[in-house]
Design goal:
Layout: H1 4-17, E1 46-56, E2 62-72, E3 74-87, E4 93-95, E5 98-104, E6 113-115, E7 118-123, E8 138-142, E9 145-149, E10 153-164, E11 167-181, E12 184-195, E13 200-210, E14 212-213, E15 219-229, E16 237-248
Antiparallel strand pairs: 1-2, 1-16, 2-3, 3-4, 3-5, 5-7, 6-9, 7-8, 8-10, 9-10, 10-11, 11-12, 12-13, 13-15, 14-15, 15-16
């Protein structure tokens, strides 16, 4: 029987190349970054389901994460949750620590500069004994800012901190996205992490994403990237796969 990793990879490949059917409007790609968070909350009445899979190419570990994002009444408030399923260096597999996230759209998503700070509660759903979780409640703050530069370039910037007992992790990130077409983008992300234990990680993550738009309003966005370790992460390489489903779950106010 195929293992979990093989099944996840096969599903991503099939959905990435699946024909898009009869499109409605060429809905542009907006909130589908990989490692660097964008400052765009979900629109009213629209839900997004996101799957990401990342694997170290020279070692056993991999992580598949499912995230679901919901607007709370309007685009100003957003609630989401993330659930990881992973394999450790010891080849033990299982669920990791889950996160419940709240994000506030401080500066409007359709403005040239958008800002949406996020706070998260990290729940110890993973087994600490098996190396799948921290074994304690944690908290995270991230400050994503997005800036549109002309008609074809968008940048995103992150700064944040994650705290669990005895371990604090600081993060910085930035990305540049070239909107080659409304439904095909080329992006390059950079992420820096440092813990109070002295551990550091620097990753450059170039990739591409594209959209399939359906007459129903459903948008499917697959994406792939290749992570390159820099500095303290020299020599590390990772494969990254992304898949998003975004659709309306109720009619907008004032419409049938």
């Amino acid at each position: 029987m195929p293992n979990v990793e093989t099944r996840v990879f096969a599903a991503l490949v099939v959905l990435a190349v699946w024909p898009s059917g009869r499109p409605a409007v060429a809905q542009a790609i907006a909130d589908n970054s990989f490692l660097v968070e964008e400052a765009y909350n979900q629109e009213q009445g629209v839900v997004q389901h996101i799957g990401t899979w990342i694997r170290a190419l020279d070692r056993a570990p991999w992580v598949f994460t499912f995230t679901q994002e919901w607007p709370l009444g309007s685009q100003t408030h957003q609630l989401s949750y993330s659930i990881p399923f992973q394999q450790t260096p010891a080849r033990l597999s299982g669920f990791g620590d889950a996160a419940i996230n709240y994000r506030y759209q401080w500066l409007a998503a359709d403005a040239p500069v958008a800002f949406a700070p996020r706070v998260s509660m990290l729940i110890p759903t993973g087994s600490e004994a098996r190396g799948l979780g921290s074994g304690a409640l944690g908290a995270q703050l991230n400050l994503p800012l997005s800036a549109t530069l002309g008609s074809s370039v968008v940048t995103h910037w992150n700064a944040g901190v994650t705290a669990i007992p005895d371990v604090t992790t600081y993060n910085l990130g930035g990305s540049v996205i070239w909107l080659a077409t409304p439904v095909f983008n080329i992006l390059c992300e950079a992420v820096w992490l440092e813990q109070n234990t002295g551990a550091r990680s620097v990753i450059l993550n170039p990739g591409v994403r594209w959209a399939h738009n359906f007459a129903s309003g459903l948008q499917i966005v697959p994406g792939v990237a290749y992570g390159i370790g820099l500095g303290p992460s020299q020599g590390e390489r990772t494969a990254f796969f992304y898949l998003s489903f975004e659709h309306r779950f109720k009619a907008e106010s004032g419409r049938d």
